[in-house]
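Input sequence (468 aa), recorded before submission:
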Amino acid sequence: MKDGIYLRNVDFKVPSLDEASSTAMLFTGAYPAQTGVASSMVFNPSRGTVQPALSDPKTMGNFTNDSFSAENIRLSTLADELQVAGNGLASIFSFAADPQQSIIMSGHAGTSACWINNTTGNWATTTYYKSLPTPISTRNYSTPLANRIDTMQWKPSIELNRYPGVPSQKKLYPFRYTFPHSDKNVYNRFTASPLGNKEITDVAIECLKQLRIGSNPNAVDMLNVAYTVEPYKYSSDSDTRIETTDAYLRLDAQIGRLLDAVDKYVGAGNAIIWLSSTGYCDEAVIEDKKYRIPGGDFSMKRAKSLLNSYLSALHGNGDYITAFHDNHLYLDHKILEDKKLDISAVMADARTFLTKMSGVADARTLHDVLSPSTPEEESLRLAMDPKTGGDIILEFSPGWNVVNDLEYPSTSKSVRLSPVLAPAFIVVPGVASQTISTPVDAVAIAPTIAGLLRIRSPNGSQEKPIAF
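Predicted structure, token format:
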């Protein structure tokens, strides 16, 4: 904040962001409608199943059974353009808890993308890239996370009375989270905590040191890391303000460690550093009903059943709905064609029915979104990939919990539409510090970084570089 360019308000413009879609926006300079990564999980119409956006059965996992690649990212990324500019000599590494986030940061031409396997705790990669870096393979064998996880715990890093705005009852029992190896979900719990951020920093610094990232005189290297400070969703208490504050304090320390390592191994003033929020917040805990905030539970299973009964009453018996994923509902086009029904008319019928359901603020057809007539529909158009988007797109009412009880175990997500103030920072040697308070489009970040590096912008960039 003292030495860099501080962007106070990065505007992502689109709804329903997650770590994959927002990271793709930052690294391609384009919206989800163009990147091929509209969300972490997408519907595959040909298979009729929901799968990770970057799933690729043609590749194999290294220290994982999962198969991922960057092939489904339709545009070039910052990493790709940097590699092209360096004639393929650049070392480009990415480290994250999430595999897709790591792959997006390394792009198609990166050296390696590594993540934490949520089943074994090992660091993993994909055969789409070169083999797992030696320091990480060594770490998996010599000091694997599985051997350390039982000894770790997350508790306050400072005295409770030093946390701002803490109610008196929260000072009586400090939080304490442990990570027993017997818990089948232990690695997800770990990576959602600040301890996961430390593990990522440890690995990034080790690779920075041993692989001599940033020391090639013939190319510009790139090191990417992804951290999290999301509200901790594994807390049994809906009030997690102490945990969130502590997560920020610990994140600040990890960023400090990483920047110190860059100064030590690359040299002060020899690096361009940029840090950005991903522009969204996944509400962790459902609001306690004692506060009487209006809302309720929207059951996806019930909605699907009722809508199918309604369409059957109108058009004859049939299973008209293929899938219901997030806020996208997919109709079975084969049944509609067999019955010689007008698809647009059935979409309109479905929309009319769904908008009358409790918990639904609005519903739009695919045709509405692809031919937007309002700012809200234009925002949805930018957010939705027409190749994987649904026939009906729902908007849920704030205060409601969307329950996905079509899968086991069921999951629940609370709806909150409050905009998130997303900051970004860019530190460039020789460029004076300043604060930019006016909103900056998120897709302008990638061309801005490209301009500072004197390379081409990613091929799908939607905005010009920010003027400093």
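Checked by second reader. Residues 101 and 244 are 22 Å apart (CA to CA).
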